[in-house]
Amino acid sequence: MADTATTTVAPWAPIQPYLQQGFQQAGNLLNAGGPDYYPNSTVYGFGAGTMEGANQFQNIARQGTAVAGAANQQVADTLSGDYLNSNPYLDAMYNNAAGAVTRHYSEAVAPSIAANFGLSGRTGSNMAFANTMNQSQDTLSRNLGGMAADIYGGAYENERNRQMQAASLAPETAKLNYFDASQMMNLGGMFDQMGQARLDDEVNRFNFNQNQPYDNLGRYMGYLGGQYGNQTTQPLYQNKTAQNLGLAAAGLGLASEYGGSVFDFLSGLF
Q1: pTM of the complete model beyond 0.70
Q2: What are the two backbone dihedrals, phi and then psi, of residue 6, each rounded to the nearest 5 degrees?
Q3: N- to C-terminal Cα distance for the chain?
Q4: Radius of gyration for the alpha carbons in the chain, expressed in angstroms and rounded
Protein backbone atom coordinates (compact mmCIF):
# COMPACT_ATOMS: atom_id res chain seq x y z
CA MET A 1 0.00 0.00 0.00
CA ALA A 2 1.32 3.42 -0.95
CA ASP A 3 2.02 5.93 1.76
CA THR A 4 -0.14 9.05 2.05
CA ALA A 5 0.44 12.61 3.11
CA THR A 6 -2.29 14.70 4.79
CA THR A 7 -2.29 18.48 4.50
CA THR A 8 -4.50 20.50 6.84
CA VAL A 9 -5.32 24.17 6.24
CA ALA A 10 -6.99 25.73 9.26
CA PRO A 11 -8.99 29.00 9.24
CA TRP A 12 -7.24 32.12 10.29
CA ALA A 13 -6.69 31.77 14.01
CA PRO A 14 -8.37 35.02 15.13
CA ILE A 15 -11.56 34.12 13.25
CA GLN A 16 -11.91 30.61 14.64
CA PRO A 17 -13.86 31.57 17.81
CA TYR A 18 -16.40 33.48 15.72
CA LEU A 19 -16.80 30.53 13.37
CA GLN A 20 -17.39 28.23 16.32
CA GLN A 21 -19.99 30.63 17.66
CA GLY A 22 -21.75 30.72 14.28
CA PHE A 23 -21.86 26.95 13.96
CA GLN A 24 -23.10 26.64 17.53
CA GLN A 25 -25.91 29.10 16.82
CA ALA A 26 -26.82 27.22 13.63
CA GLY A 27 -27.12 24.03 15.66
CA ASN A 28 -29.31 25.76 18.22
CA LEU A 29 -31.66 27.03 15.48
CA LEU A 30 -31.80 23.55 13.95
CA ASN A 31 -32.69 21.97 17.28
CA ALA A 32 -35.36 24.64 17.88
CA GLY A 33 -37.39 23.28 14.94
CA GLY A 34 -37.34 26.23 12.57
CA PRO A 35 -39.64 29.28 12.27
CA ASP A 36 -43.30 28.94 13.26
CA TYR A 37 -46.18 29.41 10.84
CA TYR A 38 -48.49 32.33 11.55
CA PRO A 39 -50.86 30.88 14.15
CA ASN A 40 -54.08 32.58 12.98
CA SER A 41 -55.93 32.70 9.66
CA THR A 42 -54.21 34.75 6.95
CA VAL A 43 -57.55 35.46 5.25
CA TYR A 44 -59.46 38.48 6.53
CA GLY A 45 -62.87 37.19 5.41
CA PHE A 46 -66.03 39.20 4.83
CA GLY A 47 -66.69 42.23 6.95
CA ALA A 48 -70.04 43.27 8.41
CA GLY A 49 -70.92 45.54 5.47
CA THR A 50 -70.19 42.86 2.89
CA MET A 51 -72.22 40.31 4.80
CA GLU A 52 -75.12 42.75 5.10
CA GLY A 53 -75.06 43.37 1.35
CA ALA A 54 -74.84 39.63 0.65
CA ASN A 55 -77.82 39.00 2.92
CA GLN A 56 -79.76 41.70 1.09
CA PHE A 57 -78.92 40.00 -2.19
CA GLN A 58 -80.25 36.75 -0.80
CA ASN A 59 -83.44 38.34 0.50
CA ILE A 60 -84.05 40.21 -2.76
CA ALA A 61 -83.54 37.04 -4.74
CA ARG A 62 -86.27 35.47 -2.64
CA GLN A 63 -88.70 38.36 -2.18
CA GLY A 64 -87.86 41.28 -4.47
CA THR A 65 -88.35 44.96 -3.62
CA ALA A 66 -91.39 47.23 -3.87
CA VAL A 67 -89.81 49.88 -6.10
CA ALA A 68 -88.19 47.47 -8.50
CA GLY A 69 -91.34 45.34 -8.43
CA ALA A 70 -93.47 48.31 -9.48
CA ALA A 71 -91.01 49.19 -12.25
CA ASN A 72 -90.97 45.60 -13.45
CA GLN A 73 -94.78 45.48 -13.37
CA GLN A 74 -94.99 48.67 -15.40
CA VAL A 75 -92.64 47.24 -17.99
CA ALA A 76 -94.57 43.96 -18.01
CA ASP A 77 -97.94 45.74 -18.45
CA THR A 78 -96.54 47.80 -21.29
CA LEU A 79 -95.09 44.73 -22.95
CA SER A 80 -98.40 42.90 -22.68
CA GLY A 81 -100.28 45.78 -24.37
CA ASP A 82 -102.39 46.84 -21.40
CA TYR A 83 -102.10 50.46 -22.48
CA LEU A 84 -103.07 49.94 -26.11
CA ASN A 85 -106.22 52.05 -26.76
CA SER A 86 -106.78 52.42 -23.04
CA ASN A 87 -105.95 56.10 -22.76
CA PRO A 88 -108.81 57.55 -20.68
CA TYR A 89 -108.39 60.90 -22.45
CA LEU A 90 -108.28 59.52 -25.96
CA ASP A 91 -112.07 59.54 -26.49
CA ALA A 92 -112.31 63.01 -25.04
CA MET A 93 -109.62 64.18 -27.46
CA TYR A 94 -111.57 62.74 -30.40
CA ASN A 95 -114.95 63.98 -29.21
CA ASN A 96 -113.60 67.46 -28.74
CA ALA A 97 -112.07 67.54 -32.20
CA ALA A 98 -115.13 65.88 -33.81
CA GLY A 99 -117.48 68.26 -32.00
CA ALA A 100 -115.63 71.24 -33.42
CA VAL A 101 -115.87 69.84 -36.95
CA THR A 102 -119.53 68.95 -36.54
CA ARG A 103 -120.40 72.37 -35.17
CA HIS A 104 -118.59 73.98 -38.04
CA TYR A 105 -120.63 71.89 -40.44
CA SER A 106 -123.93 72.59 -38.68
CA GLU A 107 -123.33 76.27 -38.16
CA ALA A 108 -121.47 77.17 -41.32
CA VAL A 109 -121.41 74.54 -44.06
CA ALA A 110 -125.04 73.41 -44.05
CA PRO A 111 -126.54 76.92 -43.70
CA SER A 112 -124.24 78.12 -46.47
CA ILE A 113 -125.50 75.42 -48.82
CA ALA A 114 -129.12 76.29 -48.06
CA ALA A 115 -128.46 79.97 -48.52
CA ASN A 116 -126.77 79.43 -51.85
CA PHE A 117 -129.72 77.44 -53.13
CA GLY A 118 -132.17 80.11 -51.88
CA LEU A 119 -130.27 82.95 -53.55
CA SER A 120 -130.13 81.16 -56.87
CA GLY A 121 -133.88 80.48 -56.83
CA ARG A 122 -133.39 76.77 -56.70
CA THR A 123 -135.14 76.18 -53.45
CA GLY A 124 -137.77 74.19 -55.27
CA SER A 125 -135.21 71.78 -56.66
CA ASN A 126 -135.35 69.34 -53.80
CA MET A 127 -133.31 66.75 -55.64
CA ALA A 128 -130.32 69.04 -56.25
CA PHE A 129 -130.48 70.43 -52.76
CA ALA A 130 -130.62 66.91 -51.27
CA ASN A 131 -127.65 65.77 -53.37
CA THR A 132 -125.57 68.73 -52.30
CA MET A 133 -126.41 68.18 -48.67
CA ASN A 134 -125.59 64.47 -48.99
CA GLN A 135 -122.21 65.29 -50.49
CA SER A 136 -121.46 67.73 -47.71
CA GLN A 137 -122.48 65.22 -45.09
CA ASP A 138 -120.37 62.55 -46.76
CA THR A 139 -117.43 64.91 -46.67
CA LEU A 140 -118.13 65.52 -43.01
CA SER A 141 -118.21 61.76 -42.36
CA ARG A 142 -114.91 61.23 -44.17
CA ASN A 143 -113.34 64.06 -42.25
CA LEU A 144 -114.49 62.62 -38.97
CA GLY A 145 -113.28 59.15 -39.98
CA GLY A 146 -109.89 60.48 -40.98
CA MET A 147 -109.66 62.37 -37.73
CA ALA A 148 -110.50 59.21 -35.78
CA ALA A 149 -107.87 57.24 -37.70
CA ASP A 150 -105.26 59.89 -37.00
CA ILE A 151 -106.03 60.15 -33.30
CA TYR A 152 -106.63 56.50 -32.46
CA GLY A 153 -104.12 55.15 -34.93
CA GLY A 154 -101.46 57.57 -33.77
CA ALA A 155 -102.11 56.65 -30.17
CA TYR A 156 -101.82 52.95 -31.03
CA GLU A 157 -98.55 53.51 -32.88
CA ASN A 158 -97.13 55.53 -30.02
CA GLU A 159 -98.00 52.85 -27.51
CA ARG A 160 -96.44 50.17 -29.70
CA ASN A 161 -93.25 52.21 -29.75
CA ARG A 162 -93.39 52.39 -25.98
CA GLN A 163 -93.78 48.63 -25.89
CA MET A 164 -90.58 48.23 -27.86
CA GLN A 165 -88.81 50.72 -25.61
CA ALA A 166 -90.06 48.85 -22.57
CA ALA A 167 -88.70 45.60 -24.02
CA SER A 168 -85.25 47.16 -24.32
CA LEU A 169 -85.46 48.56 -20.78
CA ALA A 170 -86.63 45.33 -19.18
CA PRO A 171 -83.15 43.85 -18.50
CA GLU A 172 -81.90 47.08 -16.93
CA THR A 173 -85.09 47.45 -14.92
CA ALA A 174 -84.59 43.97 -13.52
CA LYS A 175 -81.15 45.01 -12.24
CA LEU A 176 -82.76 47.64 -10.03
CA ASN A 177 -83.65 44.84 -7.66
CA TYR A 178 -80.02 44.51 -6.68
CA PHE A 179 -78.83 48.12 -6.85
CA ASP A 180 -78.94 48.90 -3.13
CA ALA A 181 -77.42 45.56 -2.19
CA SER A 182 -74.66 46.08 -4.77
CA GLN A 183 -73.81 49.45 -3.31
CA MET A 184 -73.66 47.93 0.15
CA MET A 185 -71.36 45.16 -1.06
CA ASN A 186 -69.11 47.63 -2.88
CA LEU A 187 -68.74 49.67 0.27
CA GLY A 188 -68.14 46.53 2.30
CA GLY A 189 -65.49 45.43 -0.20
CA MET A 190 -63.52 48.60 0.49
CA PHE A 191 -63.41 47.78 4.19
CA ASP A 192 -62.55 44.16 3.38
CA GLN A 193 -59.55 45.26 1.31
CA MET A 194 -58.31 47.46 4.11
CA GLY A 195 -58.82 44.66 6.62
CA GLN A 196 -56.85 42.23 4.45
CA ALA A 197 -54.07 44.79 4.01
CA ARG A 198 -53.80 45.18 7.78
CA LEU A 199 -53.80 41.41 8.26
CA ASP A 200 -51.08 41.02 5.60
CA ASP A 201 -49.00 43.59 7.44
CA GLU A 202 -49.43 41.67 10.69
CA VAL A 203 -48.43 38.40 8.99
CA ASN A 204 -45.38 40.03 7.41
CA ARG A 205 -44.27 41.38 10.78
CA PHE A 206 -44.73 37.95 12.34
CA ASN A 207 -42.72 36.27 9.58
CA PHE A 208 -40.01 38.90 9.85
CA ASN A 209 -39.58 38.23 13.55
CA GLN A 210 -39.59 34.48 12.97
CA ASN A 211 -36.93 34.65 10.24
CA GLN A 212 -34.78 37.34 11.80
CA PRO A 213 -32.46 34.92 13.73
CA TYR A 214 -31.80 32.94 10.53
CA ASP A 215 -31.23 36.07 8.50
CA ASN A 216 -28.90 37.48 11.14
CA LEU A 217 -26.92 34.22 11.26
CA GLY A 218 -26.66 34.13 7.47
CA ARG A 219 -25.32 37.69 7.34
CA TYR A 220 -22.98 36.97 10.26
CA MET A 221 -21.47 33.91 8.59
CA GLY A 222 -21.27 35.81 5.31
CA TYR A 223 -19.23 38.53 6.95
CA LEU A 224 -16.74 35.91 8.15
CA GLY A 225 -15.96 35.07 4.54
CA GLY A 226 -17.05 31.45 4.45
CA GLN A 227 -13.47 30.09 4.37
CA TYR A 228 -13.49 27.46 7.08
CA GLY A 229 -10.27 25.59 6.16
CA ASN A 230 -9.84 22.20 4.57
CA GLN A 231 -7.86 18.99 4.72
CA THR A 232 -6.47 17.04 1.76
CA THR A 233 -4.80 13.60 1.61
CA GLN A 234 -2.55 12.53 -1.29
CA PRO A 235 -0.70 9.23 -1.90
CA LEU A 236 3.10 9.12 -1.93
CA TYR A 237 4.74 7.09 -4.74
CA GLN A 238 8.34 5.70 -4.74
CA ASN A 239 9.97 5.38 -8.20
CA LYS A 240 12.57 2.62 -7.81
CA THR A 241 13.74 2.90 -11.40
CA ALA A 242 14.50 6.59 -11.13
CA GLN A 243 16.35 6.01 -7.89
CA ASN A 244 18.41 3.20 -9.43
CA LEU A 245 19.22 5.30 -12.47
CA GLY A 246 20.44 8.02 -10.19
CA LEU A 247 22.60 5.53 -8.36
CA ALA A 248 23.84 4.18 -11.66
CA ALA A 249 24.98 7.61 -12.73
CA ALA A 250 26.78 8.00 -9.46
CA GLY A 251 28.26 4.52 -9.88
CA LEU A 252 29.73 5.36 -13.23
CA GLY A 253 31.58 8.15 -11.68
CA LEU A 254 32.92 5.91 -8.92
CA ALA A 255 33.89 3.18 -11.33
CA SER A 256 35.86 5.53 -13.48
CA GLU A 257 37.45 7.02 -10.41
CA TYR A 258 38.57 3.69 -8.89
CA GLY A 259 39.09 1.75 -12.14
CA GLY A 260 36.44 -0.83 -11.54
CA SER A 261 34.22 -2.46 -14.18
CA VAL A 262 31.10 -0.52 -14.99
CA PHE A 263 29.19 -3.67 -15.81
CA ASP A 264 30.16 -5.20 -12.57
CA PHE A 265 28.93 -2.14 -10.78
CA LEU A 266 25.57 -2.02 -12.65
CA SER A 267 24.97 -5.74 -12.17
CA GLY A 268 25.37 -5.23 -8.53
CA LEU A 269 22.62 -2.59 -8.60
CA PHE A 270 20.04 -4.53 -10.64
Answers
A1: no
A2: -110, 130
A3: 23
A4: 59
> Could you tell me which residues come within 8 angstroms of residue 236 by beta carbon, excluding any fewer than 6 positions away?
2, 3, 4, 5
- Tens digit of pLDDT for each residue in 141-167? 777 777 777 777 677 777 777 766 766
Domain boundaries, the chain: 48-193, 234-270
CA 19, 24, 25, 31 torsion: positive or negative? positive
Q: Return all residues near 98 (Cβ < 8 A) that are at least 6 apart.
A: 144, 147, 148
Lowest-confidence region among 6-10, 139-143, 157-161, 240-244: 240-244
CA dihedral 63, 69, 73, 76 (to 10 degrees): -70
Is there a contact between 57 and 178 (Cβ–Cβ < 8 Å)? Answer: yes
Type of residue numbered 210:
Q
Q: Which of 241, 204, 220 is nearest to 22 (CA)?
A: 220
Q: If we measure between CA atoms, which residue out of 59, 28, 37 comes closest to residue 216?
A: 28
Total length of the chain: 270
